[in-house]
Design a protein that fits this description.
With 306 residues, the protein is α+β, with helices and mostly antiparallel strands. The protein has eight helices and 17 strands. The protein has two domains: 117 residues, D-amino Acid Aminotransferase, Chain A, domain 1 (2-Layer Sandwich), CATH 3.30.470; 161 residues, D-amino Acid Aminotransferase, Chain A, domain 2, CATH 3.20.10. Strands 8, 9, 10, 11, 12, 13, 14, 15 and 16 form a nine-stranded mixed beta sheet that branches. Strands 1, 2, 3, 4, 5, 6, 7 and 17 form an eight-stranded antiparallel beta sheet that branches. The longest helix is centred in the N-terminal third of the chain and has 14 residues. The protein is globular, with a radius of gyration of 19 Å.
């Protein structure tokens, strides 16, 4: 999906015109992947635009930077303020928000300590990541030949730019074979996640999802769904998920900020359940979308109104 250009970008403490926000071709992160980022959404609600779990996303951004030994030259509050002001300046009611922190132009090589740390925030209109139809009809997936990077190789729990080549290869492989998305296993052969999504399955009314130690991203949407499911009194188990469990599931779905909640209808040519979005998936999807749209007052603490 192409990027919808907006007027302003916040970069290194200043609001710049879209086309003025540029970096040098010798930027360290461009060569070595020395950066971290976030994906956040702002939704139009009855009370106006609201950012979903803004503080949690920014805390994760700072945690990601810390894990990568990158010191962000701004406070969490400053980044939050920049995001809110940028949305106002761009006059957006709904948008995707991309804060990114990376090592900039300075010295070349694998010791980046003398390179400046650059910080930018970009906002633009972005629809459903896997397509609008994915929310209604679900997606067809395949088990990728690319295994999820283990945490003792790269910090898989965080959003580091370097980790996403792994995801890109899995995504391209799935598309090449005619599928909508990939499902990645960890080094032990258990189900980990999608290239840009966490994964859940349902069997006999019980919801299962891979645990944190399965080399997964600790997704904000995943965390939200766990809390929503608990409040709806579903039984939820964080356990090692085998491929056989996935094949035999009654339902399965992806979660993610860009993805939202998307049913998985097929894995490796095998229908999940009857091959249609299941009732628990649809219930959680509706609840989540109602929450982000400000229709559930009990979850208003998750919303930052503009």
């Amino acid at each position: 999906m192409s990027i919808q250009k907006t007027k302003y970008i916040w970069m290194n403490g200043k609001f710049l015109l879209w086309d003025e926000a540029k970096i040098h071709v010798l930027t360290h992160a461009l060569h070595y992947g020395s950066g971290v980022f976030e994906g956040i959404r702002c939704y139009n609600t009855v009370k106006g635009p609201a950012i979903f779990r803004l503080q949690d996303h920014i805390k994760r951004l700072f945690n990601s930077a810390k894990k990568c030994l990158i010191e962000i030259p701004y406070s969490e509050n400053k980044i939050c303020e920049a995001i809110i002001e940028l949305i106002k300046l761009n006059k957006l009611k709904e948008c995707y928000i991309r804060p990114i922190v990376f090592r900039g132009y300075g010295e070349m090589g694998l010791n980046p300590q003398n390179n400046p740390v650059e910080v930018a925030v970009i906002t633009w209109g972005w629809g459903a990541y896997l397509g609008d139809e994915s929310l209604k009809k679900g997606v067809k997936t395949m088990i990728s030949s690319y295994r999820r990077i283990p945490s003792n190789v790269l910090p898989s729990h965080i959003k580091a730019t370097a980790c996403y080549l792994n995801s890109i290869l899995a995504k391209l492989e799935a598309l090449h074979h005619g599928y909508d998305e990939a499902i990645m296993l960890n080094q032990k052969g258990f189900v980990a996640e999608g290239p840009g999504e966490n994964i859940f399955l349902v069997k006999n009314g019980v919801i299962y999802t891979p645990p944190a130690y399965s080399d997964i991203l600790l997704g904000i949407t995943r965390d939200s769904i766990l809390k929503i499911a608990e409040n709806l009194e579903y039984e939820v188990k964080e356990v090692d998920v085998t491929v056989e469990m996935l094949y035999n599931a009654d339902e399965a779905f992806f979660t993610g900020t860009a993805t939202e909640v998307v049913p998985i209808c097929e894995v490796d040519g095998r229908k999940i359940g009857d091959g249609k979005p299941g009732p628990i998936t649809l219930k959680l999807q509706k609840e989540y979308l109602d929450i982000v749209k400000g229709k559930k007052t009990e979850y208003e603490a998750w919303l930052t109104y503009i």
